[in-house]
Structures are given as C-alpha cells and as structure tokens.
C-alpha cells in the first residue's frame, strides 16, 4: 500500500513550513521503519527533500577518502623518485610536487567559488582526478633533470630540462584543458560545472609546475652540487672516505664518472629490455593481433551499453532511498508518473472553438499507448458536466466565470489546477495524464519525446512536465551530447597536435589514438555494469584528454629523435618517456582507486572509468603507438 501526501508550496512561508514538515516526517518515518521491522512489516519512505539531503550526506563521505588518496600519492611519489644516493635522491622534490598540485586545487576551486560557479556533488570527484593527473608533469620534469650533467650550471640544466619537456607538457595541458572546456557545450549543468572546475584547476597545475616546481628543482640542484662537493672532499690525507660517506653507496673515486652518466634503472629497462622486445617481429605481430581483439571486444561492448541514470544510484548504498525505489519498481511499476499538461497562456475556455482545439489536443494525449485514459484528471471536463447539471450555458462568458468559485468549493481537488486572476481571467490551467507501461529506459524516452511532440503540434500553447523528466531527459539527450562532446574535443586535439607536434602524420596518429581508447572505455563499461549517463559522459570527455596525453608524449619523443631507423626512434622514445608515462598512469590510478571503497555509485563509477582510461591510455602510449609508428 502506498500513501502520498501533497504539501502546499505557494509562498515562502508555506515552503518553509512544508520543508519543516518533511524533515519531521523523515525522522518519524525512520523510527516507524525500525519499530515495524521487528513485526516483519517493511516500511519505505521518500520525500521531495530526500535527494538533496542524501546528496549532501554522500558528498561528506568522500572527504576521508581524499585524505587517504593524498597520502597514497605522496608515498608513491617518494617511492618512485627515491634513490639510494644522497645526491640523486628526489624524495623531497616529489613531496613538493604533490604539495604543488594541492595548491593548484585550492587555487582553482577557490577562484571558481569566488566568482560564483555552483559546486555540485559530481565536482567532488575532481580533486581525486587532479591529484593523480597533476603529478604527471612532475615525473616528466624529474626524469628529464636526471638525464642532465653535473658539469653544467643550474641554469644550463634547467634550460636543458625545459627544452626537452616544456613543449610536451604544454601540449598535454592544452589538450586536457580543451577537452574539459568543450564539455561546457553539453546541456547537462552538472557536467558543465565539473568541466569548468577541473579545466581551470589543471591550468593552475600547469602554471605551478613550470614556475613553483621548476624553482624547487633548481634549489634541489644547488643541494646536489653542495652534496657532491662534500662527497668529493677528502676526510684524511690518504683520500679515504668516512663511514658516513660510504653509507651514501658511492665510491668516492668515481664520483665524476657516475654523475655525468647517471640513468634511472627503469629508464634502462625501457631502453635495454622492453623497447628491443617490443620492436621484434614476433612482438609486433602479437601486438597487432592483441589490438584487433581489443577493438572487436570494445565494439561488441558498445552495443551492450545501457543508457540513463538509475535514480537508486544517486544516494549511498545504505540510504533509505534505495529500498523505496526497489519497492516502487516491484509493486508500482505498472503505472509511471502522472504527467502535468499545462496551458501556458490565457485562453477563452467558454469559447466553443477554443475549447474544441484544447479537447482535440488532450484526446491526442489520451490516444497514446503510454496513457490510461480512464485516469485523466482535467478540471474543464468536470466543469462542463457541472454546468450541464446546473442547466447553465457553458458558452456564456459571464455564466462560465461566475460559477467557477462554487465549482472549486464542491471539487477542491481542482483548486490548484486553475490560476484565475482577481479580474476573472484564467491565465493558466493544467490537466494530469496517468502514464503506464514505461518501465524500460527506451519506453521512458519514447514517451517523453511523444508527449513533447504532441504538445508542440497543438494549436493551444501547451507544456508537459513531471519532476521525473529530469532523469528521462538523459535517455533522449545523453548519446547526442556525448557524441558531440567527443567529436568537438577530438577536433580540438587535432588542431593542437598539428600546431605543436612537428610532423603532420604523427599528429594524425596521436589524434586517431583517442578513438580506440574511447571505444574501449565505452565497450568495457558494459562489461563492468556502468550505464551511459551524465557521470560516465564526464569520464569519456576526460578519456579524450588522457588518451591523447600518453600518445602525445611518446609520439613527440619519436619524431624529435635523431636516431636513423624507426625502430631505434621507438626505443629512444620509450627510454626517454616510458617510465614517466608509466608513473603518470599509476599515480592517477592510485589517486582514484580510493573511490572504489566509496559508498556511492557516483564515486565508484568515476573510479571504474578512470581505471579503464588509464589502462587503455597507457597501453596505447607504451605498446600500440610505438609499434604502429614504426609501420607508418
């Protein structure tokens, strides 16, 4: 059995009173649920205020997860940049790099809040993403710094670092920011706000990386020089090293040779093991077969993706909203929402021609397969019968208007369906149609489109509305908005790559690499039970930028290489940027992995898709793109 209570919400005072009633109702219903559960009676409840309250509660649950993500990123940065070498060790530089990202988050969010950009629940995902992505530039800059020579001055080494990585970092930043800002074109406000927050914060990350973090590296370079001088300084006349200096794991007599050619072990792995293995003939054949399998699986998955956001996923898993929607679906799914059809302008209802036009439109609604015509509620139909019983002329304006007050007293149900002014003019009125047979997302979309089409064709100005339409709209708009955002963002990627990557064919390959990553993420969404909705749409826009990042870094290093053969170019590209790309992917996965423990669908979905983006993006950057560049 279902009970429904309709509250008054006319003026500000009534709205406040209704809000207070609902808050009290939720408290009482919670107590009732617990007491009746002992008697094996299930009680579920919901109010129009529930979603907002549950949203606020859900957003608070991710704050501890952000602290955990921040700690994990710092630990990963320290471990990946640590060296058993007091000179080359970049532990504190890595820590400052993570702090720099945190400052960018504060700056970006502070600016957006200051200028009044609304903060919606979905924006709470952004810091996790930025935390993982923001350290990418740090890893690339540290990798380039460690390939410089100690014999050069600090300014020369900084110049060498920036000449190698600044363009690459700029390309990826511009493409990421453009990918997010193209998301502003969507018709979903939550997506727009997320893209504005994240795109702006990534700009701050870029500026902080090339200024604050660069200055930190320069200061650490001075520390390296001082530390090296201390290691070279003899303790005794026989040039022997002290036990403290020996603990630095360095033979004092080979310091100069070591520091003029120091290479990180992971860079050596990509140069001496992974690169030669990848460009061998057998490996290339295997990579091509693997790529074909990946594309076939992804395309198949794309046809299995479900559209639309399930209302049950908008709150935490243990919310009282979830069992309410479960019961509604199990026992009350035959009938859908009661749709309001509004006559939006003043109409001469007493005029027979005007009334016939309106009745024809309402008949069109009732003839829909999604409407139960026996449950239509329209005040005018009842009023015509009322006037006939009184033997009044329904076509007489004076009689029509003078009898409305007594009609509303006898039929108070319709009191809120007529907006009549003090001058006795009906400026607006409404009818209700009971929908049915719309349990599937396809039926909801078709019903919505059919109702709006019927309203548009009517000679009388009509509008259809129900609060559930905010969800039904996703079914009709999500695919179009997603495709448009992906196409526009990809076009922006192509323009940027043509301008900044010094080889047109390479630019095309980098842009092309975004397509299979998007297809792969979309396809594997279906295998991981993720629907195509506004949340996953955000991630697909992100997908464009990140899939471009990994491919752009490797491709730029490939075309910039001075090696004579394409195979050697691929190996050098992996040697220079393979490890930073791997660090970037892992750091981002670590940044969002804590969301897998979240108690809400929104955050878990963000983790799932970002995981797919990072895995497929890194696979293209480290495996597929190097091999395909050697072919073409």
Automatic annotation (TrEMBL):
It comes from the Eukaryota. Its main location: membrane. Pfam families: Patched. Residues 62-219 form the SSD domain. SUPFAM superfamilies: Multidrug efflux transporter AcrB transmembrane domain. The chain crosses the membrane at residues 57-79, 91-115, 121-145, 165-184, 190-213, 482-501, 507-528, 540-559, 579-602, 609-629. It is found in: Membrane. PROSITE patterns: SSD (PS50156). Keywords: Glycoprotein, Membrane, Transmembrane, Transmembrane helix. It is a multi-pass membrane protein. The keyword Transmembrane helix applies. The keyword DNA-binding does not apply. Coiled coil: none annotated. Belongs to the patched family. This is SSD domain-containing protein.
